[in-house]
Design a protein that fits this description.
Elements lengths: L9 E4 L3 H13 L4 E4 L2 H7 L6 E5 L1 E2 L2 E2 H11 L5 E5 L4 H10 L3 E4 L4 H14 L5 H6 L5 H9 L3 H16 L3 E4 L6 H11 L7 E5 L5 H9 L16 H4 L4 E5 L9 H10 L1 E2 L8 E2 L3 E6 L3 H7 L4 H7 L2 E4 L10 H15 L9 H8 L6 H15 L7 H11 L13 H15 L4 H8 L3 H10 L4
Parallel strand pairs: 1-2, 1-3, 3-6, 6-7, 8-13, 8-14, 9-10, 10-13
Antiparallel strand pairs: 4-5, 11-12
Helix pairs in contact: 8-9, 12-14, 15-17, 16-18, 17-18, 19-20, 20-21
Length: 453
């Protein structure tokens, strides 16, 4: 019997053949079934019903990528589009967002960042019909799914508080380790809030050079600095009436902290190089994986800004602290992978789930997703078992011999394991991140936390 043809579910549109081939290989390695196009005309032909997301380059041989985005919105308004722009091309990024792009990245970019954005925008695109709301007692379906998935009392309480916080329209601080799902929670809060029809604008504070971050947040006037050929809006202007997520807020440079404090206090700011006071009605959600109070004590984070941000804190527990949820998470993630690859389901043996449950997961849910994506990509049998899981756990995180010293903590075991992985990589931060299935920025944070070099 001939094998069932798997339909493409990711469209990559770029006229650079080398980049196109790189993205195709990277997508296949992460469980996607990609198809590529070198022009907007070819892209329209590829935009079939199975496509779940589009990566669209701005510069195409047969027209402007913004125009292509508009046509794609007409053909498939339900499909998220991530725009790729030139280095620090802020004007194009703003145009793309206004034209309906779900997010954008500037070249060069990290592959993990791109596929993380694809995952996030696909999550945020899940919309619920009125029938679904009626069936779930008026609750958003995604929140009902979250409540059903979790057995952890702490997580159930978090989801209840999350729903209340969404209605309060106050500044929120999301705390928790890297990979625990802070961006997803922020998107869900926005989606459940009265601002849901407006923009959700995420900003990663450490992702941009500090000299560009101020312009990214607050915009700039024409001629404000070399290369500022036109006036541009910042993220706070784009997020007016919507929600802005300031991710990894602990990395906000000291010189920008007073300006953010002014926005929190008065909803006012100046563009870079501007002398006209602007106002914003954006709701601010900040997220961090570090101890902000410790930063305040150390003098690197303003105390008044901390208290302005921490009107209400929602803490996301690490996966190891809610390990009873792991079987449900595995089922949910595998179901999503199966849908993405055109399958009905992806079974997993109880032994494999037990092995996953015994892992410490320093990269939390993000690492779990990474392991399951890779396991399914190379699995030979119809279901996952221990043989598919063991090599990936060993490659990602090789737990050191237990320290039997009285008083040894789980945190100390994790510290030893992280440092062991860092040494095995030859002190290569990018390789350490790949081996552990965590973001490279997290490697830097852990090195700082453990005072290692």
């Amino acid at each position: 019997m001939p094998a069932t043809k798997v339909l493409p579910n990711l469209l990559i549109v770029d006229d650079d053949e080398s980049l196109r081939n790189l993205l195709l290989m990277a997508a296949r390695g992460r469980g996607w079934h990609p198809v590529a196009a070198a022009s907007s005309t070819a892209a329209y032909r590829c935009l079939k019903p199975g496509i779940k997301a589009v990566v669209l380059d701005h510069g195409l041989p047969d027209g402007d990528g913004i125009q292509a985005l508009g046509r794609m919105r007409e053909l498939r308004p339900d499909v998220p589009v991530i725009m790729l722009t030139g280095l620090n091309d802020a004007e194009t990024a703003v145009r793309a967002l206004r034209a309906g792009a779900d997010d954008y990245l500037t070249k060069p970019f990290e592959l993990e960042r791109l596929f993380g954005v694809i995952r996030d925008v696909c999550h945020s695109r899940r919309q619920n019909s009125g029938a679904e709301a009626a069936e779930t007692g008026g609750l958003p379906a995604s929140r009902v799914e979250l409540l059903e998935e979790t057995r952890s009392p702490g997580m159930r309480e978090l989801f209840q508080r999350m729903h209340k916080a969404a209605q309060l329209d106050i500044t929120l601080l999301l705390t928790g380790e890297s990979g625990t799902g802070k961006t997803f929670i922020a998107r869900e809060i926005h989606r459940m809030s009265p601002r849901a029809a407006e923009a959700f604008i995420p900003v990663s504070c450490p992702a941009l050079p500090r000299e560009l971050l101020e312009s990214e947040l607050f915009g700039h006037e024409r001629g404000a600095f070399t290369g500022a050929t036109a006036t541009r809006e910042g993220r706070f202007e784009q997020a007016t009436r919507g929600t802005i997520l300031l991710d990894e807020i602990g990395d906000l440079p000291g010189e920008l902290q007073p300006k953010l404090l002014t926005v929190l206090q008065d909803q006012q700011f100046f563009r870079v190089g501007g002398n006209r006071m602007l106002r914003t009605d954006a709701r601010i959600v900040a997220a961090t994986n570090i101890d902000l109070q410790a930063r305040v004590t150390a003098g690197s984070f303003r105390e008044d800004l901390y208290y302005r941000l921490n009107v209400l804190e929602l803490h996301l527990p690490a996966l190891r602290e809610r390990i009873e949820d792991l079987p449900g998470l595995v089922t949910t993630i595998l179901a999503r992978i199966a849908r993405k690859r055109g399958r009905d389901s992806w079974p997993v043996t109880a032994a494999a789930v037990g092995m996953l449950a015994s892992h410490p997961w320093p990269g939390n849910i993000r690492q779990l997703e990474n392991v399951l994506e890779r396991a399914t990509a190379f699995a030979e049998a119809a279901q996952l078992d221990e043989r598919d899981i063991v090599p990936l756990l060993e490659g990602h995180y090789r737990t050191p011999a237990p320290d039997n010293t009285p008083g040894s903590s789980l945190q100390e075991v994790e510290r030893q394991a992280f440092l062991a992985a860092y040494q095995r990589s030859g002190r290569n931060k990018a390789r350490t991140a790949r081996d552990l299935g965590i973001a490279e920025r997290t490697v830097y944070n852990l090195l700082a936390r453990y005072d290692a070099k």
